[in-house]
Automatic annotation (TrEMBL):
It comes from Sulfuracidifex tepidarius. Its cofactor is [4Fe-4S] cluster. NCBIfam families: nadA, PRK09375.1-2. GO terms for molecular function: 4 iron, 4 sulfur cluster binding; metal ion binding; quinolinate synthetase A activity. Keywords: 4Fe-4S, Iron, Iron-sulfur, Metal-binding, Pyridine nucleotide biosynthesis, Transferase. Pathway: Cofactor biosynthesis; NAD(+) biosynthesis; quinolinate from iminoaspartate: step 1/1. This is Quinolinate synthase. InterPro entries: NadA, NadA_sf. Gene3D superfamilies: NadA-like.
Amino acid sequence: FGMSSDLIKEIRELKKERNAIILGHNYMDYGVQLVSDFTGDSYDLAVKAMKTDADVIVFAGVYFMAEQAAALNQNKTVLSPDPNAGCTLSDSLDVDTLSEFKKMYPDAPVVLYINTSIYTKALADYIVTSSTAVKVVSSLDSDVVLFGPDANLANFVEKKTGKKIIKVPPNGRCMVHASYTKQLMEVARRKYKGAVLMAHPESPLEILEASDFVGSTNQMIEFARKSESRDFIVATEIGMINALKLQVPEKTFYPLVTTEACGCARCPYMAMVTLKKIRDSLVENKHVVKVDLETAERAKRAFENTMKILG
Ligand code: 13P
Ligand code: SF4
């Protein structure tokens, strides 16, 4: 940990020098979570980005998160430690596909998951996250809703709200959560007898129906903290174990799949954000994320529509 502790010290000093904060997603490496001023899920971090007085925000997460923060904060410098940190979900929906669906269903409100590019967000009426999707969709007047790009989350929302959800595109998937099967779940249940199983709603419906709790990464932390149980199986990206260990140290967490068992356990994009890249981003002021004003304003309106519903 020697090399990491030097980097951690250096990053903490750089943050002071530049009046910067680091927002770290719950899936980040342990060291990255240690240098983060706030860790959280995608909704929480987007809101934190809007509330900070810092001049610089380093977004330790994948690119769409930094892009969202830049759109919401035109007057601040938002840095992405690695702008190549993509996401299979955001890659699965482009502006043309969304525009075609909008033409086919002109009266349906467009609800987009935050895991999308800012240009598709600019065409949305609401931007939701895993913690807010069900609440937002159920509050809409329309019984038909255009929703994308995660087909698993769409199935979950459809089941919870009883509305007709048109998936755009029809089969968007997160490469991590879409690989979970009932068989993997049964193996884990046998191995960790009595442990409570928490699942992320990007997982297939058969996983969600057979789990004990479904929620966003922050909701998992809350649930584990309040639960009377001591042991938990965690059906989401394996970096989440870092967040749970840091936030709920008195309990024990087992990943549904380990990195040894499956290359799918760790999101390769989340893994691209390292302490070294965070240090370099602060030293060299890179990579500055810029969103043109019109796109940013439209995406911001869609995010604020969601915030109004949530109150
Ligand atoms: P939340 O942290 O909002 O639950 O979402 C996780 C995610 O999909 C990031 O890839
Ligand atoms: Fe995208 Fe899935 Fe990786 Fe999250 S875990 S960034 S949804 S590919």
